Amino acid sequence: MALDDIAALTFDVFGTVVDWRGSVIREGEAVGQRKQVTADWGRFADAWRDLYQPAMEEVRSGRQPWTRLDDLHRASLDRLLPEFGLAGLDEAERVDLNNAWHRLDPWPDVVAGLTRLKRRFILATLSNGNIRLMVDMAKRAGLPWDAILGAEATKAYKPLPQAYLGTADLLCLPPERCLMVAAHYGDLLAAQSHGFRTCYVWRRAEFGSRPKNDLPAENHGLDLVVEDFDDLADRLGCA
Amino acid sequence: MALDDIAALTFDVFGTVVDWRGSVIREGEAVGQRKQVTADWGRFADAWRDLYQPAMEEVRSGRQPWTRLDDLHRASLDRLLPEFGLAGLDEAERVDLNNAWHRLDPWPDVVAGLTRLKRRFILATLSNGNIRLMVDMAKRAGLPWDAILGAEATKAYKPLPQAYLGTADLLCLPPERCLMVAAHYGDLLAAQSHGFRTCYVWRRAEFGSRPKNDLPAENHGLDLVVEDFDDLADRLGCA
Known about the structure:
Two copies of one chain form a homodimer.
Chain A: E1 8-11, H1 20-35, H2 41-50, H3 52-60, H4 69-80, H5 91-98, H6 110-118, E2 122-127, H7 131-141, E3 147-150, H8 151-154, H9 161-170, E4 178-182, H10 185-193, E5 197-201, E6 224-226, H11 229-235
Parallel strand pairs in A: 1-2, 1-4, 2-3, 4-5, 5-6
């Protein structure tokens, strides 16, 4: 399928651009060391992330009014802290640990790959992360986004249609001129159902030793499947 | 007044960051040359810009539903073309000329100044220009924004309160931690009334040989008055 008319790449971020699990483990370990608490920080990262979809579902369903991801993360964190020996964290410590999501490290290929892709395409986030979270992450990691779009800009959490369609609209592009880039098949299928082109990125280490979920089906109908962002830049003919 | 707690700089763009008038003149001249039409392109630029506030006022007042600036610019352009001998432009030519606003040149100090400021502060647009317009302009001119906010992100044209307050909210900052940077006193007074800190930038050539309007009053109550973005970076102690 020709991809010549792609004008913008829209990126899932958690897992696709950044290693959320490794980074949250690092942040948990640091807090553990400061507080002299021993815990399984891999399990902590997984438990926090496991509350991510249910928290957003409250908002998607309308049972809870629009709430930015920072606040959803914080409510989940407050629930989890006792289980990991951190019930004693004070407000400032909780705010700081919650901001772990602003300090996620990119996968090693990301900055070089995005830099190549940026010369030819508009690069926008299409993440469920809120704008300030994405801004802080980008400044720390040097991610050269052209625009921070996605959930907060459209007031809709993926996979609601408005997250995708609203992002394309803010870019003044028909969906078929946007290439959704994600390491999660479900995200790509949702984007595709609204007319986006799709690119699956293997991020084999996203879940540590847990196997990846959300793999592409055998006859997946995706436009591209790539190893990493350098591979993507190659496939799209970027210098 | 101490400015130590400023976390984000929010920028007016047309006139403050880019030379809209000189750039629109350049674009008018180019079309005139292609079409062998002679006109006063300075008057064309001024006439187009003179329709800017009235067009936005239709939206601000609620008489017209939300309409992005590209579309307001286009309606104004269609009105003006006959007067400047360009009634014969076809649809593609009109789209291209309307995109002149995506190709505005920055003032000479801008890229270096923003690059210095970006190391210490979040840099966000707080312009009435729509997101795609700002993205195209930034890519062409190398403007290193961290986020494109302002009118389209808040669905409110300045000086409506929501343009300022909504932008601060998207940055997760109280208004007093945002410094509004503009070459227009009215914009700064509106921002200040909602708690923003304020910086006036002299852009003495904004209107060509027409005198600048929108100068600061004598006892202006602004936090900073600077010559250009290098001066601003100096005043804020950026390396």
